[in-house]
Structure formats: structure tokens, C-alpha cells
Fold:
Amino acid sequence: MHRTTRQRGRSLAAAAVLAVVALGCAACLPRDVGILASADFDGRRSGEPGGVKARDWIVGQLRSISTGANTSSTGAGSYLQRFGGRANVLAVIRGTNPDGRYVMVGAHYDHLGHSCRTAVPADTLCNGATDNASGVATVLQLARRLHEAPARRTVVVVLWDGEEQQDLGSNYYVAHPLFPLATAITYVNLDILGANLTPGLRTTTFAVGPETGGTRLRQAVDAADAATPLDVLSLSVVFGEGRSDHAPFVKAKVPTVFFGDSSGGCYHTAQDDVDVVDFAKLREQAELVISLTRSLAKTTTPPIFDATAPVTSYADVVEFERVVDRAWPDRALFSTADQATFATSRDTVHRIVDDGSAAFGTDDVGAFLSSAQKSASLLSHLACDGFLADS
Structure:
């Protein structure tokens, strides 16, 4: 029986996963992504055997380095918050000088099973390597590093169930928190990491919603960004489109930042496999999250939720201009019609930036958000490609 290129790629990926297991946690990120995105977990669909198996594996990784957050249970059960046949996984890494406040960092572990688009009819397994095995692997990396060298304050790590079903797990948690939401310094959300939208955006990633924590959270994100070679573009929370586990925390008025690479050609496809993950980028993203978490866990001036932040701002337009300009040299990847739409949206963004902040008004807000939405939607038209080849 002849194997397809993808099948051979998966065999090589599996061999790589086995090889790095022996290397210890210097190789934990690729190992963990490879395991979570493997056929063993059958697409990690919430409430189904593959999702349960992934959940149990995650608990197994956390048990020796943390404490279960659910004090009403014991053993493995202390790591679970059960709801409607599903379960969030929550673990506590106690700080060296806990003061009753905590930082929470989370990522969803569920995916789509076999219910996603595919470019190869014979391939129906939704591996979810960038969505969101990479986010889970980053949370586990954070937990291991905090176990080795605890932060000043306690850090709660959480792996959400049911995100693909309208954020079921995070919505349940916010309605039934195991720790008072009012004592949360910040919730840091991770969803779709190690992904590249186009070749020109290989070093670009996004921090969505830092304005929810006012100047203090924006400054903390900027400081963590300064220590990484990544270019972290900060955008207002509206750019998260309420489509990940940060949204319930924002509604509950918890300062929140959502790190992610947005949704491109691999999003919700069976081709979102280990071979499209940019592990060099993912390592830098993990260091970014670890640095920010430590900073928030020791700050004497915690972020305060800012309910007055505008929906969008001139600063968003300036940041988004950088996105469209970096992607512009890659426009040949798009169809002729999509290139025309992209050009119109880019022109709109340039016009608003050129007009200056003093001229930024209601009409510009509408034009900008429409252009940004159109530009983002074009990315889903691309073929799934990690754009990992040297340029």
C-alpha cells in the first residue's frame, strides 16, 4: 500500500516525537504538541473519548509539578472542574510569597474530532496542532518552569474544555470560579500559537486586549515583548472577536490579554498538523508568556480593569498597517479577486494613518474595522502552509 506524502510526514513527525522524549524538557514543546496532535487523541473532541484521553494525559503531566485546584476532590479528580459531561483542568503552582492574589494562564485543549475542512478527502482527522495543542504545550512549559523556580505570587494554570463549542469551559468557570475573580491579577489566554499567516508575518504575533488592564497591563506586555525577537502587535479586544476563552473574563471585568497568531489557511482544517508548526516561533512565544507571567506575579501595581477603553483606536490602525504592509509582498498567494479586496483594505488603512490621530473619527472607526475584517477573512482562503521554508 502506497503512503501519501502526508502519511510519510506523520510517520517522520511521530519518529521525531519519540526521539525528543529522551532529551528531557528542553524538547517538551515539540514533544507535547506532537503527542496532543497525534491520532491517539482522535482530534480531542469535547465530551468524546479522544478529548477525555487528552484531558487525562494533561493531568498526568501536571500531577508531579503542581496541586489540583479543586479542593472538594482528591487525586487526579482534584485537577478537574466537571460540567455537562466535560471537564476543565486546573492546577496551582504556589508562589514564594502568596498574598491572596493570583495570575491565571490558560489555553483550550479540545478540538474538532473529525468535523473540519480538509484539502485531502482521505484525511479527516482534525489534529489541531496550532489550534490548540501549541497553546496547551506552552501552558505546560510555563507550569514546569514555575515548578522549578516559583513566582512570587501563586499562578493558576487552566486547560479549558469545550472552547470549540462557544467557550463552554471558560464560561462555566467564570460562572463557578474556584478562586475569586476579583483577586485575579490578569487572565492570560493562549490560542493558536506557532502559526504563520504568510511568509512576511513569520515573526509577527498578536496581543489582543491589553487595554482591558489599562496602562499597567499594556506596559507589562510591552516589557515582555522587548525581551523577545518576536514583533508583538497589540490590538484592542474587539479583534479577538469574542471567539476564545478570554471573552468570558473580559465580560467579568478581569484584566485580560490574549496571545495568538490569528486564523489562517490551516484554521479548522485536517491539515493543521505538526508539520506546519513553527517551533522556533513557539519557543519565543513561550518565553514571552513566561516572562509576562513572572512580571505580573511580582508587580506591586497590578493592572486594573479599564471599562472606559474604546472599541478601537488610532493605535490599532497603526499596528494593523504593519500587518497589511508585511503581508503585501505575499499577495500573489491570493486569488486575483482577493488581491483586489486586499488592496482596497490596505489603501483604507493607509489613508486613515496618513490623516493622523487628530482626524480619527466615527466614520474612520467603521471603515477601519470593516477593512480589518475583510483582510482577516482573506487569510482563510489560503492553502494550509506553515511557511517554514527559508525565504
